[in-house]
Amino acid sequence: MIKQAQAAPAGEELEILRAEAQNNIRTLRQTIRRLGEDEIRLILSDARSHYAWTDRPVPDDLLGELYDIVKMGPTSMNSSPARFVFVKSQEGRTRLAKSLKPANVSKMATAPVTVIIAHDLEFWRELPFLFPHEDRRPHFEGKPEHSADTAYRNATLQGAYLMIAARALGLDVGAMSGFSNKIVDQEFFSGTTLRSNFLCNLGYADESALFHKLPRFEFDDVCSFA
Predict the structure, then answer these.
(1) Which residues have CB under 8 Å from 116's CB, separation 6+?
(2) Could you write out the DSSP letters of every residue in the chain?
(3) Separation CA 10–CA 132 (nearest Å)
(4) 113-120, strands of its sheet edge to edge
(5) From CA 9, how far away is CA 81, in angstroms rounded?
(6) Cβ 208 vs Cβ 52: under 8 Å
C-alpha cells in the first residue's frame, strides 16, 4: 500500500520549518555534547552478540518504541527501504526454522523475538510521501539493479540502527546470517517485492552462553588517510 504524498512545504512555511530544524539540532548539540563512556560501552564497545536467552518476554509496545527510534536513522533520500517482521508466534518460528542452519535453530527457538530485516525492491514507489519536495522516482523506475543496490545498502544500515537502538533500550541482540534467504522469502514474502537480508534475535540474554571476546583490528591495521 502506497502512502499518499502530502504537498511539500514552500515559501514562508518552508523557511519556518528549516529554521526550526536548524535550531533543534543546535540545541541538541549544546545539550548533549557526546554520550558518556557507560552509554558507549552499553551500545558498542562492551556489548556482546548473544546466543542464549532467558524467558523474559519483550512486549509489543517496546518493539514499537524500538521502531520509532530506528525510523529516524538516515537513509539515502529518506528512502527507508527496510521492512521488519517480528517473529514471535509458534507458527512464525516453525516457518522461519525451515530456513535456518541446524546450529541456529535453538538460538531462534529460545529468543523472545527474531526480526527478519528485509527490504522492498520497489521502495521508490513511496518516495512521493518520504521525499515530497522533488519526484525522485525516475531515478529508480525501470532500473532494477540500481533499485536493488539502493534498497539493500540502506536497509542494511537500518538493520544496524535496529541493533544499536535495541541495546540502547536495554535489550540484547544476536544477529544471524546462517540461513537461506530463498526459503525465508518463499515463506514470508512470496508474491511481494520484499527480500530478506539478515535475521536478528532480540530479548534478554542468558550470559552463561558467552565466551571470551574475540580480537579486533587496531586503527593502523585497517584505517588510513587520503
Answers:
(1) 84, 85, 87, 96, 184, 188, 196, 199
(2) -PPPP-PPP-HHHHHHHHHHHHHHHHHHHHH-SS--HHHHIIIIIT--B---B-S----HHHHHHHHHHHTTS--GGG---EEEEEE-SHHHHHHHHTTB-HHHHHHHHHSSEEEEEEEETTGGGGHHHHSTTS--GGGTTT-HHHHHHHHHHHHHHHHHHHHHHHHHTT-EEEEE--B-HHHHHHHH-TTSSEEEEEEEEEE-B-GGG--PPPP---HHHH----
(3) 11
(4) 82-87, 113-120, 194-203, 172-176
(5) 24
(6) yes
The whole-angstrom separation of Cα 205 and Cα 188 is 26
Q: What is the pTM of this model?
A: 0.94
| Per-residue exposure over 146-164, b if at least 16 CB sit within 10 Å of its own CB, e if not | ebeebbeebbbbbbbbbbb
Strand partners, 79: none
Closest CA to 159 of 200, 113, 111, 204: 200
pLDDT band, very low/low/confident/very high, at 170 (cuts 50, 70, 90): very high
Report the distance separating Cα 192 and Cα 219, nearest Å.
43
Residue 121 to residue 146: CA distance in whole angstroms: 10
Task: Tell me how far apart the alpha carbons of residues 17 and 10 are, in angstroms, rounded to a whole number.
Answer: 10
**Residue given cell 510521501 in the structure block:** 129
pLDDT value at position 38?
A: 97
